[in-house]
Amino acid sequence: MQSLAGTSPDIDRKATGSRGVLVLGLGNILLQDEGVGVRAVEALYRDYRLGEGVDVLDGGTSGMALLDDIRNRDHVIVVDAVKTGRPPGSVVILVDDEVPAFFQSKVSPHQLALSDLLAVLKLTGEQPASITVVGMEPQSLDIGLELSELIAARVETLVNRVVEQLRLLGIAVEAVSA
């Protein structure tokens, strides 16, 4: 688990009672396209400047270790590979109640952990106010450190969908010029 960015100090959010927005990349980078969520948040962090109150986190396959990161957030955007039966490279957006239902079917170890994590937070009354999954249908889950050619070419599309979701939340997002 690697924190890529925290654009506003935790102490400021604690003083206001807000936990802000978390953009959470999930995935196993050892299984080709299974790592698309991690690669997408790396690109988001590298290519964009995000407004106040947004944290970006490479959650990898951390599962329950993410409890404190997700607890009481205003909004969580999970970026991940999702198996829906759609063509590889398809982007899928799930919102709020659609999320736990989708992750009931185990596609990879971290996805079941996300469902469990959300259930624990709901039981303790500490669930995020809202959650969105921005996912991409993988092409290959074979062992390998690189995304498949098709998915690598579509990472920018996935990042653009995350940027759209942030802007819908009223978050300022600015592209970093090269």
Please provide a written account of the structure.
With 178 residues, the chain is an alpha/beta fold. The protein has a single domain, classed as HybD-like (Rossmann fold), CATH 3.40.50.1450. Helix content is 35%, strand content 24%. The protein is globular and about 40 Å long.
| Strand adjacency order, main sheet | 1-4-2-5-7-6
- The secondary-structure element order is EHEHEEHEEHHEHE
The total domain count is 1
Radius of gyration: 15 Å
Low-confidence stretches: 6-16
Total DSSP E strands: 8
CATH superfamily, please? HybD-like
Shape: globular
CATH architecture: 3-Layer(aba) Sandwich
Query: How much helical structure, as a percent, in the residues?
Result: 25-40%
Number of helices: 6
* Through-space gap between termini: 27 Å
Biggest beta sheet summary: 6 strands, mixed
Helices and strands in order, then pairings?
Layout lengths: L1 E5 L3 H7 L4 E6 L9 H12 E3 L3 E7 L6 H4 L4 E7 L9 E5 L2 H5 L6 H15 L6 E7 L12 H20 L4 E3 L3
Parallel strand pairs: 2-4, 2-5, 5-7
Antiparallel strand pairs: 1-4, 3-8, 6-7
Helix pairs in contact: 2-6
Summarize it.
The protein is an alpha/beta fold and 178 residues long.
Keywords:
178 residues; alpha/beta; Rossmann fold; 6-stranded mixed β-sheet; globular
